[in-house]
Specification:
CATH architecture of the largest domain: 3-Layer(aba) Sandwich
CATH topology of the largest domain: D-Maltodextrin-Binding Protein, domain 2
Shape: elongated
Strand content: 15-25%
Distance between the termini: 74 Å
Helix content: 40-55%
Order of helices and strands: HHEHEHEHEEHEH
Number of strands: 6
CATH class of the largest domain: Alpha Beta
């Protein structure tokens, strides 16, 4: 039986090599992608996750006041520096130790990158790097249902009713306000950004809930 199996794979390998030999470079690339794209994408994701884990071990992150993720939300090349500088200046006393970090997770609409981006987000959540998530309002329902956010009341936040976004989590029975719309955010308006399409919430497993609430409070100040 084992000889038959070996013979099968040997013949299969010979046929594949013959096919590739007769193809142009473009045809080879298209053929390999068509039949092996799942294997390629899986390998890239595994390498990415392994690299992130190793990097995290070798280069542990500086203790942060709060980590803020902007998921699939591009707000301009100067926004990150302005945002972190503003929050650090308003919230953090010892900037040599505690810093507000902004993480921009963008796929550019590429399906293979979207998969890797989701994996990166999960890794950051598991490692407690994130405390607040900013996302387009139309995407927030999935985040709420998947249990990525905590009810705003648990974070001690009291925001105007007209900006609250309610939903039901698969982990917590009942409907609660898990996020809020950034329509009236003076902070975002100062940056020249309209917040109508954006919302923010506190990460469900945040280990710095008080800090997350302080960041949210500053973001939602009118």
């Amino acid at each position: 039986m084992w000889q038959k199996i070996r013979d099968y794979f040997k013949e299969h390998s010979r046929v594949e090599k013959k096919k590739l030999k007769e193809m142009t470079l473009k045809e080879k690339i298209e053929y390999i992608w068509e039949y092996y794209k799942i294997h390629i994408i899986s390998a890239v994701i595994v390498i990415f996750i392994a690299g992130s884990i190793i990097n995290g071990i070798l280069n542990p992150p500086v203790p942060a006041y709060a980590g803020v993720a902007f998921y699939e939300t591009y707000l301009g090349e100067d926004f990150e520096a302005e945002f972190t500088a503003t929050l650090n200046g308003a919230l953090v006393e010892d900037t040599s130790i505690e810093t507000v970090y902004a993480h921009f997770l963008l796929s550019g609409g590429d399906p293979s990158v979207e998969m890797a981006l989701s994996q990166k987000l999960m890794a950051m959540l598991v490692s407690h790097e994130l405390d607040v998530i900013v996302i387009e309002t139309e995407m927030i329902e999935r985040f709420i249902y998947d249990g990525m956010l905590m009810p705003l009341s648990e974070a001690g936040l009291s925001l105007p009713d007209d900006i609250l976004i309610y939903g039901e989590s698969s982990e917590v029975p009942g409907e609660f306000a898990y996020a809020a719309n950034l329509t009236n955010s003076a902070l975002f308006k100062d940056f020249g950004i309209k917040g109508e399409m954006l919302c923010a919430g506190v990460v469900g497993n945040s280990q710095r809930v008080e800090n997350a609430a302080a960041v949210m409070g500053l973001m939602f100040a009118e």
